[in-house]
Amino acid sequence: MSRGTLKMSRGPQRTRQGDTEEEQRDAGDEQGDTEDEQRATENEQRDTQRTSRGTQRTSRGTQRTSRGNNRGRAEGQRGRAEGHRERDERGTQRTSRGTQRTSRRDTEEEQRDAGDEQGDTEDEQRDTENEQRDTENEQRDTEDEQGDTENEQRDTERTSRGTLKMSRGPQRTSRGTQRKSRGTQGMSRGTLKMSRGPQRTSRGTQRTSRGTQRTSRGTQRTSRGRAEGHRGRAEGHRERAGGH
Q1: What three-state secondary structure class fits 223?
Q2: Which of 31, 64, 182, 221 has the fewest beta carbons closer than 10 A?
Q3: Residue spans with biased composition (Low complexity) (predicted)?
Q4: What is the DSSP string of 22-71?
Q5: Residues 62-99: tens digit of each pLDDT
Q6: Which of the two residues, 96 and 165, has the higher pLDDT score?
Q7: Would you call 233 exposed, middle or buried from its count of C-beta atoms within 10 A (0-12, 13-18, 19+)?
């Protein structure tokens, strides 16, 4: 019986020991979970810091680009060694020479445009002169027709003079022939005016094309200015990297 009692007393002890071991394992698991959470929190903090640093770098890059577009050099070049400043000055001189070359090319293109516009002005002057001549010819035709009408009126007043009518017959025939000739000339002038219409339209299209070309050249100038700025900055960076 004493051995049975001892076994019974050992049962609760074993149960308590098992519970203690499970509690210890649970405590270890909880500690592991806590450590995992801490590591996750630290990782998130590091990710946040990395994102923040990346954002700061992007912001600084944007600021440098903005300053480069406005000044052609980053503000960070201030305070560099004298050698760096000399390299930057050489880069500025290169950029200036490139800008001068671009300016000369633009001036030559503008001179060509001015020549084209002068040619258009001369064409318009010639058109105006042709129209003035057409108007003068029409006025002369109108005066000739008025003269014919007056002659016919005089012929009508002299109806009783048959001989005069007979003599005037050939004159009327001659005037009729002149009218037909002037009518043909009027049709020719009308055709000429119609042909000048497409020429004017063509010149208007050419002007529009030249305006588009000017816009394109302005865009190219802006692009070339940006490219010169980029090259100047790249040159400065390379020289600074070589100096370190």
Answers
A1: helix
A2: 31
A3: 51-71, 199-222
A4: HHHHHHHHHHHHHHHHHHHHHHHHHHHHHHHHHHHHHHHHHHHHHHHHHH
A5: 666 666 566 655 555 665 666 566 666 766 676 666 66
A6: 96
A7: buried
Per the CB < 8 A criterion, the answer to whether 156 and 149 are in contact is no
- Determine the distance from the C-alpha atom of residue 48 to the mean position of all C-alpha atoms in its chain, rounded to a whole number: 40
CA distance 217 to 109: 9
b/e for 6-21, b at 16 or more Cβ within 10 A? Answer: eeeeeeeeeeeeeeee
Indicate the angle between helix axes 82-157 and 162-243, nearest 10 degrees.
Answer: 170
Q: What whole-number distance in Å separates Cα of residue 171 and Cα of residue 164?
A: 11
pTM: 0.27
Phi, psi (deg, nearest 5) at residue 160? -70, -10
Residues 16, 9: Cα–Cα separation, whole Å: 11
| CA atoms lying within 13 Å on the CB side of residue 192 | 12
Q: Which helix (H) or strand (E) holds 234?
A: helix 162-243
What residues contact 147, with CB distance under 8 A and at least 6 apart? none
Handedness of CA 157, 163, 164, 166 (dihedral sign): positive
What's the mean pLDDT when you consider all of the chain? Answer: 70
Give the closest residue to 117 by CA, choosing from 215, 220, 214, 217: 214
Contact between 213 and 179 under an 8 Å Cβ cutoff? The reply is: no
Please check whether residue 123 is in contact with residue 203, taking contact to mean a CB–CB distance below 8 angstroms: yes
Q: Length of the chain in residues, anyone?
A: 244
